[in-house]
């Protein structure tokens, strides 16, 4: 694989870098002579040095990044046997073959090894100084074979158990996409063989899964080596799926751009694999199906023929491809959506391992979500596991639906990387969102959402009414599509028969000049956000039907604690009668967010640290959506600790101050509280505007149509004043003081009459809590 060009922040040199270790000379010799390699990739040398020093290691590298070397090379160098736990027989066989081809003594004990061979392996392992350097096993083998455990005990007693390698370590976490119960039992190895170092490796893990992996494996203080997950040579695209035309579309893509080029088409079911392969064949493409319904032999043969390019395309279920080291895969298409972001990234990552451009397209249809949900709910397992899978699926849906943010950025953010890739730099790999010339803007649909929720609740009886497969219900059952019909003013018979054409919400979205697609996206977003929910039922013909009802977050919307925004194309936004001030406000908040991000990036670059070590993007979004005007308000923002506020806060407040003239429009802002008597404010803390800025006062007056704003007091206090409101000119002087400014900001009281008749801007802590990554400005797009 060619080295990807990464614009990630550079990590500081590790204590494990370099060649000044006792083992370094021998290491270089084996690296060059045995493995035939010349240059280490990022983090390889560091991880190898660390494990050779007896450290536990956690290695996170993207697919094809070169993880195997980080344990194979130490395996060769160290005395004793390195035990590698790997999830798939095919993967194990492939690795063992490769090692043997390099004349490295490697063996496996996977399920289908013949008994004579297994005996021979056991015998060799019982020698005082075994020749075997790497022993590959499945986690199931470790769980089920007392003989293997006993062999390992003997190795351990003789000091010949060099290390344990946990490959595809995300399988240990049930928050991951590929949970394997036997992986979870691997922590027993730690108890049984104390002092034997572990290496856990994975190509896909969110911060949450990473934490869980270490917890599950009992790795308390590992050396962690993380490479960027960016695969800059991959082009990401999500296309609308038109089922009846899809195979034709795929065939055309292959014939036009990938004639005789290798690729994978991932399908959801065996049947889909078969029919897709057949149809591609009928269009002259050399394709084969690959799925669990075929015999092991058949699958091995298909895999081999694809690796050697005898088959151009494999139409496969997800079981295909893990660990296959085929460099020249030019495309990975998802005929139906994958089950999770991790699954998607792992599958897509099988393209372009040689570093040349490759294309990854997901064909997305919301109908597939119902199919997948049904599959998830039919899988054996407890409710928790099912819920995790369902959440993973909805996260992927959210990715597919977001047509505004860079796809690469979305993926990297999902994996916890906080930097902005320059996706547009390369026209061959620019993602479908960055190459689109449609511009988006955010529209607040909270009022409409409230009406919809009230209607759905009224007709369905709320969430408790539709629970259970055949549960008792007081309300009626309707699908999300039915509600879309109602809100779009459809005159379908079922709508009129139910009398919903006379409801006030009938045609609500049509009146807003919305297209059906936009209305669909809004309702799906409400499902993703938990404002609505879909309950899966099995119909009379064994068909899965999802009935919609209100979700757990609906009360937050009704009470005004949660806002419902949808990104729509600007033209549509205008048609949706977004008021001019509303639009201006959105733009200001977006511009503020951009500048906050730039500040964070620049600071991080100058300090040589990751921007996330300063503030996460979620924190910056919250800051932009609800700008802090003082240090104490900054401290209210999720992710801002006192230490961070002290170290970095001033720079961020200065950015906010720069936007003050636009942020003080003298009218009620989004997150303001309104007391029952119509007076605003009334909360413990109010974000209030500075009073002694004449420019803004004047502006506020104008915006109120000439209504006189309450005269600001210069240094007085006011019952509705925030205790921390520096005047802009005072802020500027604070900024130059360079003392962190914290104490002064906290205790200085400026004039507090506020603008626009003393409008207090109070952050609503509940709203902040409810604000997910979806609801910040610029997040969710339709
Ligand atoms: N330092 C290096 N120089 C050149 N090639 C390398 C280097 N390290 C690894 N490779 C090659 O890169 C390819 C991918 O490596 P490897 O199979 O270890 O990736 P991986 O991270 O385990 O991927 P996956 O997640 O798909 O299993 C292999 O062909 C390997 O030989």
Automatic annotation (TrEMBL):
Residues 48-223 form the Helicase ATP-binding domain. Its EC number is 5.6.2.4. It catalyses: ATP + H2O = ADP + phosphate + H(+); Couples ATP hydrolysis with the unwinding of duplex DNA by translocating in the 3'-5' direction. One of its GO terms (cellular component) is cytoplasm. Residues 249-394 form the Helicase C-terminal domain. Residues 695-713 have a biased composition (Basic residues). Keywords: ATP-binding, DNA damage, DNA repair, DNA-binding, Helicase, Hydrolase, Isomerase, Nucleotide-binding, Nucleus. Its main location: nucleus. Residues 586-666 form the HRDC domain. GO terms for biological process: DNA replication; double-strand break repair via homologous recombination. Residues 751-760 have a biased composition (Gly residues). GO terms for molecular function: 3'-5' DNA helicase activity; ATP binding; ATP hydrolysis activity; DNA binding; four-way junction helicase activity. Its cofactor is Zn(2+). The keyword DNA damage applies. It is found in: Nucleus. It comes from the Eukaryota. Residues 667-782 are annotated as: Disordered. Belongs to the helicase family. RecQ subfamily. PANTHER family: DNA HELICASE RECQ FAMILY MEMBER, RECQ-LIKE DNA HELICASE BLM. This is ATP-dependent DNA helicase. The lineage of its organism: Eukaryota, Metazoa, Echinodermata, Eleutherozoa, Echinozoa.
